[in-house]
């Protein structure tokens, strides 16, 4: 299956087929634990739960979160550029399966179901990266923040009463600011305005709440695109 074909295929389940679990080693990660990266890394990681962050620090005084990996996402360490300070970090407690590259290749060659799942999972991640680039490069600060909140509501959220949604907030304030290319104080002011307007609340420590998810979505012009790319996990159909 080509990447083009995989991108048009029916979305697959978040969790990988059993072949990957039996081939690899399941690792439980604590918050802020790091995983090996770089051209010499002989492993591929598949996220089973939690959220992983790909960070880079070109300068000692600067940091950028380049990508987020959710349940069902694949991290191919070999294809990540050798950037200064590049690290893969668990934002909180997480679980991954670590698979040796040679064993992965054997599994993909001998198991059609594993190959289909892997190709579709990889293909689904590319358009998400392009969307994030467009979000950071063209949207206002508030629109960037709302876009991330909508994404989190889709990926790590649950439908509530009527149109409400609760969702995890796995990124710290600094992580969110570095992912959205915002100043941390600017991010705090935007979050305060959203709470004061009533479109965002907190449902406990590390848990966000959108009383009316549709109202939150209306604050970003890319909401439909986010939902199309991130809500294919069985929790919500795009456009609902």
What keyword list fits this structure?
4-stranded antiparallel sheet, single chain, alpha+beta, disordered N terminus, disordered C terminus, Arc Repressor Mutant, subunit A, Jelly Rolls, 240 residues, 41% helix, 12 strands
Task: Write up this protein.
The structure is a single chain. With 240 residues, the chain is α+β, with helices and mostly antiparallel strands. It has two domains: 3-133, Jelly Rolls; 139-230, Arc Repressor Mutant, subunit A. It is built from nine helices and twelve strands. It has helices at 3-8, 18-23, 101-110, 112-138, 141-155, 173-180, 184-197, 213-217, 223-230, and strands at residues 25-29, 34-35, 43-49, 52-56, 64-69, 74-76, 87-90, 94-100, 157-159, 165-168, 201-202, 207-210. The strands form three sheets. The chain has a four-stranded antiparallel sheet. A four-stranded antiparallel sheet has the order 2-7-4-5. Strand 9 (157-159) and strand 10 (165-168) form a beta hairpin. Helix 3 crosses helix 4 (112-138) and helix 5 (141-155) packs parallel to helix 9 (223-230). It is globular, with a radius of gyration of 18 Å. The two termini are 31 Å apart.
């Amino acid at each position: 299956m080509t990447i083009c074909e995989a991108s048009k295929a029916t979305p697959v389940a978040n969790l990988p087929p059993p072949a990957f679990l039996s081939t690899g080693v399941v690792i439980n990660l604590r918050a802020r634990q790091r995983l090996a990266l770089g051209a010499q890394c002989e492993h591929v990681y598949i996220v089973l739960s939690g959220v992983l962050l790909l960070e880079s620090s070109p300068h000692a005084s600067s940091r950028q979160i380049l990508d987020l990996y959710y349940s069902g996402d694949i991290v191919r360490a070999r294809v990540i550029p050798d950037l200064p300070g590049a690290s893969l970090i668990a934002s909180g407690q997480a679980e991954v399966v670590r698979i040796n590259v040679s064993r992965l290749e054997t599994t993909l060659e001998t198991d059609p179901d594993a190959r289909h799942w892997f190709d579709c999972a990889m293909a689904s991640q590319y358009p998400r990266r392009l969307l994030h680039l467009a979000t950071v490069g063209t949207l206002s600060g508030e629109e960037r923040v709302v876009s991330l909140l909508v994404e989190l509501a889709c990926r790590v959220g649950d439908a509530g009463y009527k149109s409400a949604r609760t969702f995890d907030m796995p990124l710290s304030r600094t992580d969110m600011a570095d992912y959205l290319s915002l100043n941390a104080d600017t991010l705090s002011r935007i979050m305060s305005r959203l709470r004061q307007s009533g479109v965002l609340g907190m449902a406990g420590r590390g848990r966000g709440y959108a009383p009316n998810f549709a109202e939150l979505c209306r604050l970003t012009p890319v909401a439909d695109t986010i939902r199309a790319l991130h809500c294919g996990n069985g929790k919500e159909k795009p456009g609902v």
